[in-house]
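In the lab's daily routine, each protein ends up as an entry in a very long ledger. A line of letters takes care of the sequence, but it says nothing directly about the fold. The fold becomes a row of whole numbers, each drawn from a learned catalogue of backbone shapes. The protein below has been through that process, and both of its lines are reproduced in full:
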Amino acid sequence: MFTPRYIKDGNALAKAAQRVINYRKDIAKEDQLKHARKQLDDLKLALKDRSSERVRELEKGLLSVLGRIEPASDRHGIRENVELLLVAIALALGIRAFYLQPFKIPTGSMQPTLNGVIATRMETPPPNPLVRVFQFLTLGRTYEDVLAQQEGDTISEIRSVKLNLVWDGAEIKMSSGRNYRVGIEPRVLREQLGVYVGEAFGKGQPIVRGYADLGDQLFVDKVGYNFAGPHRADVFVFKTNGIAGAEQGPDGSGQHYIKRLAGVPGDVLRIDQPVLYINGQPAQEYAFQRVASQKNGYTGYVNDQSGGMRYLRDPGAAVTVGPNQFFALGDNSANSADSRYWGFVPAENVVGRGLFVYWPFSSHWGFVK
């Protein structure tokens, strides 16, 4: 049977009006809601009687009262976009808190498996801006070229600063009162670029000239260990809270470290350079054999009889991992502050397993091995 257009339009308006009334009933004025319900009931009766004039008359009145209940706003789209953004932020924070957490490799203790910050001095100025942008996006490389503006200016202080919400760097204070900010942390400036307090410069001489590859960025799986506990040879992230000798934050809170899980509870470990022994046998897992091979940049596992190590100082020294503890070693064994120096990682300190390098797009991009 043919249905007149005014009947279809009236029914659509009635349904829309009911949604508005239900949506705004907690915040709209009661007299407006009462009027709207009355207009809606009258419209439904007119539609039932198929009275076209009455339907059109009631539509105008209903639209008028609905406009007072939910006024039209030019900012409606903006509000929806803001709500969408807030939902996205909440979702991202939820993922970070419970599932995947971004993590930056801070040091070279896991090289060449995972790169920390690697800085290189240059004798010539940086390349043109297009090359620099491309290398930053693909390699995570940032260039610095800071020249002294005054003859005989001297570095008086190098301190850590936060350049923005996500970027840590350094502020170089000069005896002249000039300050220079660079996107490279003080430790790297000192250890890798040779920039020291007290160094003097002639006018136009480079204070900092070089580049830094900012280290691998990876996602940490915070869920997997809830179903299957940490496994030997995993690359895992843990907090240093309560670990004597491990680095702590300025406020006393723990730092996040990333190492290779070398020993699980009950394991007996020993190092006879360059091989790691687990329970009396050379470690069988590929990751340990790769380090012991001393090929492709791996140093092999090392002892240190100079007195700095607490554990595994010499080939005859062994250590047994206790209950609810783990023993952590860096793949760059010759240059890694790990459990050999500060002991065991409590199980409650474990954050998760290193899962996927998402940036930069270098040879390390992909799942962590």
Remarks:
- The chain has three domains: 5-69, 118-213, 217-367.
